[in-house]
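User: I'm writing a tutorial on reading structure tokens. Could you give me a worked example: one chain, its sequence, then its tokens, then a sentence or two explaining what the tokens reveal?
Assistant: Sure. Here is the example chain.
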Amino acid sequence: MVAATASLETLCINSIRMLAVDAINKSNSGHPGLPMGCAPMGYTLWDKFLRHNPKNPQWFNRDRFVLSAGHGCMLVYALLHLTGYDSVTLEDIKQFRQWGSRAPGHPETFETPGIEVTAGPLGAGISNAVGLAIAEAHLAAKFNKVDSKIVDHFTYVVMGDGCNQEGISSEACSLAGHLKLGKLIALYDDNRITIDGRTDVSFTEDVLKRYEAYGWHVQHVADGDTDINAIEKAIELAKTVTDKPSIIKVTTTIGYGSPNKSDTAGVHGAPLGEEETQLTRNQLGWNYGPFEVPEEAYDCYRKAINRGASLEAEWNQELTKYRTKYPTEAAQFERMLRGELPQGWDKDLPTYTEEEKGLATRKHSQICLGALGPNLPELIGGSADLTHSNYTDIKGETGSFQSGTPEKRYLHFGVREHAMSAILNGIAYHNSGLIPYGGTFLVFADYMRGSMRLSALSELGVIYVLTHDSIGVGEDGPTHQPIETIPSLRAIPNMLVFRPGDGNETSGAYKIAIENRNRPSALCLSRQGMANQANTSLAKVAQGGYILENCEGEPELILIGTGTELDLCVQAAKQLTAEGRKIRVVSMPCVELFEEQSESYKEEVLPSSIRKRIIVEAAEAFGWHKYIGLDGDSVTMSSFGASAPGGTCMEKFGFTVENVINKAKKLLN
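And here are its predicted structure tokens:
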């Protein structure tokens, strides 16, 4: 590669700065400070190191670039445009933050090819990057051979002070250091400014010492504004450190080039304005109009097109050789890249009869994972230090993903729920066919909610195994008994929330969760055992809700149940039927799937003429009113739980057959 001259490098760097300034001025909204300050490191990384193909953003063996400080998104949009990605045209940049533009206000994978993660909340991007690096390390260990490397790429991150202040990044980066993820390299934009002003009003720690304690390799580039050589040398050195992730603190000036606003909070999140923009043009010697990029800069950046095509062609040749030498491994690798599930992956999912012993659905979940494991090699996941409570281990698997054994697929996340969910997202963002899952107690979904929301927003098929799903948790008390959690998860668009009522429904939930690669699933599972029902089935879960027990003719009352409470509905219906009442029981393991059924099917299950309905669920009633209406009732929670044995809690809060019958009789009478 022929090195650019110093004057050409300056032209390329200022192209980033001024595209950002002009786009943000035109939209009258955005964050110019970061792209102006980070332009030198962005140029250096993308021009001298990043292995990518602008004409094929999904080329598998590309390096991944994550802008964790997503508010500075004009940095990555400028780089995508300048290097020749078709996904970000100059018109898109002119329409920055406007309806229909592929340059939205924060980077979004589902809007803009070339964006690797949806970096909205600060700290999420660097945590996603840990997942990307885990995916690369796992696949490299699984598929690479001594004479053939088909998985070999780096994950680069640009992060800021805000990312380092958010707790999620501490969780994730601590784990990354433990796992010695040597192909993870973070450039920390040390500009000492946040929205409230200078960082020293709240943030005075030595960040590099913290990362050194995590087990990272640390460096400092003192002049990130102009010293391109120092940035280049630091990245070169980081690439040679294979047994540690690397962080390079690059000290920059936020809003570099702006005479009056640089190095102030005023340039963080507001346009420069016309007058200051002209002064900035003068300061940088930028003699071009708005959105004008000199041809010399385009010519330099767009060498990435031919370089990328050559890199991909070389990799394709390597893959061809790999197919010949290792046909079995190649077939599995390419199947995964296509997103195809292996034949017979679900053949061992268990089914049950009512005579078989009832178990907690968390135990049924463990049985499902054991059945899936041998048939689904892309399944990878673990637990946030609750393996023996969540039962998230895969039967027959030995060992776990560690620095010396990255081929293993069980992940010990430690007590790091938020990082776990972001890392699972990162594994899914890798787009390599891996199917990530992670377990914790349902109540701790509140720690993970930000990343769970991003799973749904970014259409990632992450599977959340959330056990101890109600006051049935018992003695741990109300701090560990989720009341509002299930309804709040149901409020997230594009998320499937399952609360299976027995073993068959648990198997059905897993089948659907595995098949849904474009939306996450939350499996809400019980600590306590429950009976297997006579008429549940694995297949019926796909309908979301279905008639479990019916009566002759039109029912007088419909009981709707989920989870452990489904059996209360069944038992209450038996007694009421014996007294001559016509009762229907509907199982509703997944509200979202039920809502997706045809209107005729929904009317068949819940006829609009039958207005007497009772929902029985050990959670807050929020969301159920669309099914029970004004004439219905519920056996639900309206308060926090209590510390007592689980059975006692259920009884004291009214989750008994007797209470369901009493409520039913009041409605019927």
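What the tokens reveal: The mean pLDDT is 97. The chain has 25 helices and 20 strands.
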